[in-house]
């Protein structure tokens, strides 16, 4: 594990991002979902490296082995962290891929910094473009859903993530594709994150509007979503994102849940390689 000091300072110390950097070739940055860390990309990293790419993963602030500051969990803050990583590693011609909450970092990075350092973008089971119901976004979740999640986490974080982890992979439908042990491990990873970060990120991914960011995508973009996603339903997110982002390639993985990096990794990996090699 490597560590990079960001430009963010809290109590006199730099917030540090823990990251892994494998392989050579064109860089692809993989941004994990909530409430996990870089380990969720285990089935993708080796596949990408073997295909000749440089796979870079990092733990979002507050998660995994990165610093766990009290503040800084808005998408503007997270986009700055991502930019610090890109500049610190002197990366260009990047393929930027985000899963679930990580899709928001992809969108906000492009909205804030543009695409001069990027070659392609990928959104997987992403929360983009806007998860919260408003007058101009009626087919989405009421704000009370996210407030309820925070209440559950505050009351019994371990208990909340035990049930959430099963729904993450639609466990009863995918017992032949993912083990209970993997679900248990995901629970451990979730519980290892900062409670403050876990709570603040619910507001970030649940209530941030990325529609204006999506309109700034001007590079080849892949949107991948499972049609059995019970956490971030395809009609709320994937279909809408593909409709806003100009010329986006939209791939639907049949019967795949939210956590398709675990359950449908073979199908996902083929889609990723086909997109980034062409």
UniProtKB/TrEMBL annotation:
From the Swiss-Prot or TrEMBL record, what is one GO molecular function term? catalytic activity
UniProt superkingdom: Bacteria
Q: Where is the AB hydrolase-1 domain?
A: 27-264
State the InterPro entries in the record: AB_hydrolase, AB_hydrolase_1, AB_hydrolase_fold, Epox_hydrolase-like
UniProt cross-references to SUPFAM superfamilies, sorted A to Z? alpha/beta-Hydrolases (SSF53474)
Family assignment from sequence similarity? Belongs to the AB hydrolase superfamily. Bacterial non-heme haloperoxidase / perhydrolase family.
Supply the name of the protein. Answer: Arylesterase
Say which species the protein is native to.
Psychroflexus salis
């Amino acid at each position: 594990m490597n560590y990079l000091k960001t430009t963010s300072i809290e109590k006199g110390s730099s917030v540090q991002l823990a990251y892994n950097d494998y392989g050579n070739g064109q860089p692809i940055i993989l941004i994990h979902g909530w409430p996990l860390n870089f380990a969720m990309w285990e089935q993708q990293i080796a596949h990408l490296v073997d295909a000749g790419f440089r796979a870079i993963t990092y733990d979002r602030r507050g998660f995994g082995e990165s610093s766990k500051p009290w503040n800084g969990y808005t998408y503007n803050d997270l986009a700055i962290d991502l930019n610090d990583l890109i500049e610190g590693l002197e990366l260009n011609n990047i393929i930027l891929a985000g899963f679930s909450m990580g899709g928001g970092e992809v969108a906000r990075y492009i909205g804030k910094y543009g695409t001069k350092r990027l070659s392609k973008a990928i959104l997987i089971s992403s929360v983009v473009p806007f998860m919260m119901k408003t007058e101009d976004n009626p087919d989405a979740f009421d704000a009370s859903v996210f407030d309820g999640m925070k209440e559950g986490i505050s009351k019994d974080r371990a208990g909340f993530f035990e049930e959430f982890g099963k729904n993450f992979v639609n466990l009863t439908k995918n017992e032949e594709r993912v083990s209970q042990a993997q679900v248990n491990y995901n629970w451990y990873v979730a519980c290892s994150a900062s409670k403050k970060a876990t709570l603040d990120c619910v507001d970030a991914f649940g209530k941030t509007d990325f529609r204006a960011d999506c309109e700034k995508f001007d590079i080849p973009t892949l949107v991948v979503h499972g049609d059995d996603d019970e956490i971030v339903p395809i009609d709320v997110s994937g279909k809408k994102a593909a409709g806003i982002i100009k010329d986006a390639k939209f791939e639907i993985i049949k019967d795949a849940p939210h956590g398709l990096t675990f359950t449908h990794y073979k199908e996902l990996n083929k889609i990723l390689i086909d997109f980034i090699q062409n």
